[in-house]
Amino acid sequence: MNPGPRPLLAADRELALLRALIQAASSGPGVEPLAAAAARMITAATDSDVCFVHVLDDTERSLTLAGATPPFDSQVGKIRLPLGQGISGWVASHREPVVILDDKESDPRYLPFESLRGRDFTSMVSVPMETDPGGLVGVLNVHTVAQREFGDRDVELLLVIGRLIAGAMHQARLHRQLVARERAHENFVEQVIEAQEMERRRLAGDIHDGISQRLVTLSYRLDAAAQAAKSGGDRDTLTEQLDRARELAELTLQEARAAISGLRPPVLDDLGLSGGLASLARSIPQIPIEVDVADTRLPDHIELAIYRIAQECLQNVVKHAHADHARLLFTLDRGEHSDIARLEIVDDGVGFDTLEHPLGGDEMGGYGLLSMAERAEIVGGRLNIRSRPGSGTAVTATIPVPASAK
Predict the structure, then answer these.
(1) In this predicted model, what pLDDT tens digit does every residue of 284-296 receive, in sequence order?
(2) Contacts 24+ apart (CB under 8 A), 57-60
(3) Among the four 72, 105, 357, 367, which has the fewest Cβ within 10 Å?
(4) To which H or E segment does residue 388 belong?
């Protein structure tokens, strides 16, 4: 008589494992330490040979190995799997467990990683780690060298363990994101202060070296003209001094306008945001830019943020996209309590892989993406980038406009 599959875990060991997991889950906010502790405990308690804990990364489009039993703990952070690829990626996409007793290579979903030595293991169970309200957090995998049958109770146990880990991991991810956001905010504040100081020094230098010197020379020319007029001197001398004074006044005015433009583009005051965006698009002759902008006014700081984002983005299109055409769209979506200002710039250029080059990554530093995102965030908005190699890029900035600012 066949006694059926051997339970993965006896009742007493199951209870001990759950106690250990609860203790680990309450020990601290780190994702990797919790994943590592869970992998070790599950392996020891279930008499399995290896356990991998894959966690959904912050882009929510791929899994990253966050915890593993030795010797595979050296691969933590190095293994990444897009959703839908491999057994773990399939489990994450479908939110369903997978049990493989042997011959993993024959499963079309299987994707081997040489560093994880998949061929050394025969049987495996892969279950999603889910929680409310966080949803999918990751995937939990258990492997054995010898063939082992896994029954429904085994799968259910691992699902329970996965849900328990997922709750703690969701909190750990939120904590990590909060810490990273606070750190980024602190860095941004420091950068803003440094940029303000640099701008003040630049303006002071421009005023001292340019405007002030020209005003001194202008005063000299006017004094000379006044002396010539009083003494009844040569009319040509008087005319020459006045002509030179007029030239200096025009140059001084140009330098003053340039200095003011560095703080706030005069086009926003002259033409408004819609006219300023249209003028900005016309100022770029390299590619045709289709413009569709709503004729509306917003608070000065929001208009300036939108204008600067559009300016940076269009410069990126010219420098990096190799596009034949672009489109600039600005709308104001009316809401009951607040409006949403939306700027979208789309090009048909070469695009890039946003998974390989996330927002703010060092590789994308030259694209000014982080600068645009920070401009949006500092006025309470956010920046979204959609791009694929060969399919162009779409940059969207959405900024709420409070009712009091209407």
Answers:
(1) 888 899 999 999 9
(2) 58/173, 58/177, 59/354, 59/355, 59/358
(3) 105
(4) none
CB 177 within 8 A of CB 169: no
Quick one: which of 138, 126, 129 has its CA closest to 51? 126
Q: Which amino acid is at 342?
A: R
**Residue 233, token pair as written in the block:** 């001197």
- The C-alpha atoms of residue 384 and residue 397 are separated, in whole angstroms, by 6
Contact 241, 221 (CB under 8 A): yes
In contact, 127 and 139? CB cutoff 8 Å: yes
| Neighbouring-strand partners of residue 261 | none
Contact at 8 Å (CB) between 174 and 364? no
pLDDT tens sequence across 159-186: 888 887 777 777 777 766 777 677 766 7
By the 8 A CB rule, do 88 and 97 touch? no
Q: Mention every residue, 6+ apart, whose C-beta is less than 8 A from residue 358.
A: 59, 364
CA angle, residues 403, 306, 347, in degrees to nearest 5: 130
Q: Are 54 and 66 in contact (CB under 8 A)?
A: yes
